[in-house]
Structures are given as structure tokens and as C-alpha cells.
Amino acid sequence: MRLVRSFSAAFTAAATTAAALGLSLTATGTAQAATPLPDHVFAPYFEAWTGESPAALSARSGSKHLTMAFLQTASKGSCTPYWNGDTSMPIAASTFGADVKTIQSNGGDVIPSFGGYAADTTGTEIADSCTDVQQIAAAYEKVITTYDISRLDMDVEVDSLDNTAAIDRRNKAIKLVEDWAAANGRKVEISYTLPTTTHGLADNAEALLRNAVSNGTRVDVVNLMTFDYYDNQPHDMAKDTQTAAQGLYDLLAELYPSKTPAQLWNTVGVTEMPGVDDFGNAETFTLSNARTVYDWAVSKGINTLSFWALQRDNGGCAGGAAADNCSGIQQNQWDFTHIFAPFTGGTTTPSDDFSVALSPASGSVAAGRSATATVKTAVTKGEAQSVKLSVSGAPVGVTASLSPTSLTAGATSVLTLATTSAAASGTYNVTVTGSGTSGSHSATYSLSITGGSGSQCTDAPWAKDKVYTGGQQVSYKSHIWKAKWWTTGEEPGTTGEWGVWQDLGAC
Is the pTM of this model over 0.85? Predict the structure, then answer.
């Protein structure tokens, strides 16, 4: 994935410790029988270098399965992989082990992914870095047994696609792993995540699959990165997904002539990039595109739906460029996840869904006066459902109310924000959430208050791009928050009681 950044050991997440600085790649672990993934699975990528908890984000977003990015060596020539190539994040229970167990106990799982753009351009993708096939296979087996998972992903792109020796080593190592799993009664799947044109794989990616066939290596899923085409052409991103996948299907039919059409389509995966991708606005994947791709994926019976990445599924930088932590388009948090999540184990489209929006989405008011906005709901899938509205985030000196508080999707309500003279001057985000049978959706109103007599919080306001370490305090939404550990970009009040920010109360 193009947005991957290679970070040094500048931080250690709460769920990880630097307990182990090395890894013996002898594959002596017991091959227990992990639970296989569903035949149809939604597994968005999780950016593992952010310091966030994958289990927490899984629970908050509703995505039960995650593709964990990325595993790579710390330096070129090494045979020891680490998360993000960071030696403080070894393949060990101390690194994400508790998170993975929590996700699995909730009925989901993770797919560890080797490679990625940073590794593939620096020689630290393990098959590029290590010339010993046995050690590469042992590393794969170590990940499988450490986290008790049933699928590994190989993200191979840019320079790694042209490293023919490494391609051959990787496929030989995968074959060893597949033989090891079979001998131990364990199901292990392998997916290859590859860049694509709008009409199918380029020649070097096709050659990678042909090498797998020649080595007797089973490839269970070929996952297309249906974005970053960089061809200076206008794009209907949903249509491009379908034509790219059709091109892949035609190639798979040639490589595996004994497979049925249903089996071939169940070898296909697609990974989108929500909103604006790295090329720019000409390659923008919209919510409408997501609904079209979902319906198409269900009708074809493909294996995997994904996107890059879970942390981008929000509208925090609407109107901006591609970023690691937002989509660049107007959307509610988790909109793309909510569209794709029913794909896991499902064979039909979700019957009902709705959206929530505010008009206007911001306003300024003198202390003692009121501001209003219309809460608009709409049916986005199926039939209208009952929606219960609630509001949160109003600062001290402001009373928020909704009329009505319950409605049928498609109807409107009125948000009233009544301020008093005791309100503190400043800008505050007030969130309206609609909850229905299909889940919940939210919209945010930015309220600016002038002329208030109340006092602002004395701690510095929280900044999205600033790095905070354990013990530092910030003010946000009229509350004081203390960081429990290293964090950046994680909004206070959105991570729950086990998250990074501790609410010290109103100020």
C-alpha cells in the first residue's frame, strides 16, 4: 500500500512490550487447528504502527476481521521479521497477542500481512531480505503459531514485483508452510495482495502467480489493490474494480482450468481506498461506489473485501488529500465499514440502512442565544427503519435538545443549542447520533460561542497532529484529558474507558 510509512522504534504501544529482541526461526511450535475464515470475509487493513489497539478499533468500528499491516525485517539481509520492522515489536504474544485473542473471542480474527510499500522499496520484505527459504518458511510458521491464525497475506508491489529470485524463494517457502500445515492437520490459507490495472494484473504480477503454479504453491486468494492507477485518466472506481477483477478471473481460469466459475470467483479479493487515493481527486472512491462494489461482490461470490485502511474511515479531512488517518471526503466515521461489514459470511445485501447529516453543520452564536440545525436522515439501503436520536458533546453552559428524538429514516428533526452567559467563548463539536436496527450513524455540528463569561480550560487544547506521551494533559470539549501512553491523532472521548485518554472531568 502506498501510504505505508516505515517507522523506527520511536514508540511502544500499550499492548506491546520490548520483551524480546530476537526470534528463533526454527518452527518448533505446535500446529494447532485455528478457526478457518468465513468463505466471504471483510477484513480492512489496520495500520499497526499507530500505537492504537486493533481490538479496540475492531469493536468500535464493527469490523470483526482485520488485515494487520505490516511484517518486515529491520534491515536488508536479515531473516528476522518484526511488526513494521521495529525491533521493539517482535513476533511474540507481547506484541498484539492480547488484542488478537480478544478479537478471536469476539468471533473475528486477524490476517497478518508481510511486505507493504515501505518494505517492498527498501529490501526489507522478508523474501527480498532473506535468501534462506527454510528461514522464510519458519518465520511464516512462527506467525501462524504465535497468533493461532489461519491466513497469511503477502503484500508484494513495486520493487518486490521485479525481484524474480525473491518471488521464487517466497513461493517455495509458502509451499513448505502448506506442507507443514497439512502434515499437522491445520488449515492455512495464503493471499497475495497485488497492484492492478483497470483490466487486470500487469505482467510482473501475473508472472508471480505463474511462478506459484510452477512451484506447486497453492494461492487461496488474489487480492487486487483497486486504486492508485496513476494513469491520468478519469475513473469510475466501482466500475474499475469490476473490470480489474474480471481480468483477474480470466487469468485464474487459465492458471486453474479445473476450477469451477464459483471457485474462481472465490479466489478473488479486492481492496479499495476510501475517499481520495494517493493519485488525487480523479481517483476518488465514494460511498456510492462502495455500495455498488458491495452488491457486485455478493453477486459474484468473491472471497475478500477490504480497504486501506480502517483508520482512514472518517471525514476528518474532508476536501483534503489522501492521508493515513482520514478519507479526504465528507462522511461519517465508519461509513465504509458499515457498508462492507455485512459481507462477512453473508450472501445477501443488508436489508436496511440509513444516514444522518446536519444542515448547517456549523454556526456562531453570542452567549445567551441559541443556534439551530436540521437533522436530516435518509434511507441508504432497503426500507425505512425507526431511528432514535441522541446528542453529546455540549460544553458547560450549553443545553442541547432534539425535536423529535425518534423518527423514521427519511424524516427530519431539529437540533437546538441554547447557550447561557456562563458559557465559555470558543468552538465546540456537538455530535448527533442516530441509532437503528442496522447500527448507528453520527454527524457533527461545530458551535462557535462569542462573548461568554465562562472560563476556558487552562490546559492546552488537544491537537490531532501532535504527539503526546503518558501523563500529558489536554483540554477538549470542556473536559481535561490525561494520556496514559504514547498517542497521536486519537481523539479524546472516542476510545472508551480502556483507551489512551483518561477523562479527568469538566473544566
Answer: no
